[in-house]
Specification:
single chain, 94 residues, alpha+beta, Alpha-Beta Plaits, four-stranded antiparallel β-sheet, 4 strands
Amino acid sequence: MPTYIMLSNLTDEGARTLKQKPKRLQEVNKEIEKFGAKVTAQYAVLGPYDFVSVVEAADNEAIARVSAELMSRGSIRLLTLPAIPVANFVRSLK
């Protein structure tokens, strides 16, 4: 399955929710699976983003659906990037 990197920032509403219910992160990851994607790694980070998630999805349409669903809730802003394994990228250069 293709891999995607999701860079996310909490909105004020999302930060309040997370403060009140820290386990919400894991709940959202389970909800993502209902949309046909899977979080394979997730990190809280310092800098311009709050979280980095590595997600597998069937295709661009599937990950776009996940992104739209999550952003429609008003608790998060996302930047979703397709990720190409380096070995595949190198092969494509030959």
